[in-house]
Amino acid sequence: xxxxxxxxxxxxxxxxxxxxxxxxxxxxxxxxxxxxxxxxxxxxxxxxxxxxxxxxxxxxxxxxxxxxxxxxxxxxxxxxxxxxxxxxxxxxxxxxxxxxxxxxxxxxxxxxxxxxxxxxxxxxxxxxxxxxxxxxxxxxxxxxxxxxxxxxxxxxxxxxxxxxxxxxxxxxxxxxxxxxxxxxxxxxxxxxx
Amino acid sequence: xxxxxxxxxxxxxxxxxxxxxxxxxxxxxxxxxxxxxxxxxxxxxxxxxxxxxxxxxxxxxxxxxxxxxxxxxxxxxxxxxxxxxxxxxxxxxxxxxxxxxxxxxxxxxxxxxxxxxxxxxxxxxxxxxxxxxxxxxxxxxxxxxxxxxxxxxxxxxxxxxxxxxxxxxxxxxxxxxxxxxxxxxxxxxxxxx
DNA sequence: TATGATTGCGTGTACTCGCTTGCATACAGT
DNA sequence: ACTGTATGCAAGCGAGTACACGCAATCATA
Lengths: 193, 193
Known about the structure:
homodimer; mainly alpha; 0% strand; DNA-binding
């Protein structure tokens, strides 16, 4: 990948993150990348081709591979906190907004599988973790798929809400949220005084 | 609101839900509404005006007012389940997709306050519920804001993920998810066998 | 010094965008 | 029968869209 093409891809993805695919014009891209507009079409087939090249790059994919979750202690509290931390570290507001910017009918069919990989990786890693925990005798047999979905949903939910509304919805910070919610997941809400 | 204007608004909001604001053209709207294109501009100032009229209508707002959450039993399990059920009943995939379709720089500043009202209403209702539960001696003093955010995030997360990926991410059904996750919230994950 | 590849620049094409205008028609209430 | 209002229809506006082409300049390598 030559430098010019990379600059074009970077500009394209940044603009899509900020304005969405349809509102991102080739003129915009050229200007942001600091190249002439016709250069885009010398390097790529068309606008769509730039985006598809972008989503295939590690740089523009949240590189959330299952290997990230191998460093576990086989203790619920530190492990769940680590899972959530790693997710929020990779899935930045920028990535969330990019994912939404890619939701245009013209490209979504091709980009959706890429976008879906992240939640899929997280979910399956979490399920696998729980199953291993059961085998190690540390967890009883439960509906792990549902449990994993609950934890993932709350992780994803917080990430998305933060990206969308920043601090306008809630001032709870990331670290506090992770700590408190993991405590809730493990101990439950303590009833009575 | 005359019939023609309503048809125009309905068509506009449906198209935005499906394709986003920028990709929705006035030609599209006219065709979908079954009116002539110039009629749009006789009824409304411009394209943006149609959308803003739409988001102000109850019909196109998730009518999730705090009153919905007044029918509580002051018992954690049935109440939390009710909260989640009511949310998912109102926040359909259609509404989620519409909210995303409204995320265009050209209109977002004006539509965001509307979109934000729903999570705000849910969150504050939940916090208020917890505080009342404390006063009734059924809950100890906790960080209710954080707890509410955890429960809301998992509710929102599930709703959003279902709207985005349908059953491709997880086959867990709504009813099962609510039941299981509320159980987790209340009892925690049972450790050991 | 010569050559081939890369890029900028200007111009252009075919099309779509939001939006406007002039005019004909249909239908309501008076 | 008269009049005002709502709508359709056809045409068109200027601006912007993705994309194309020819030509000159640059630059590394031979």
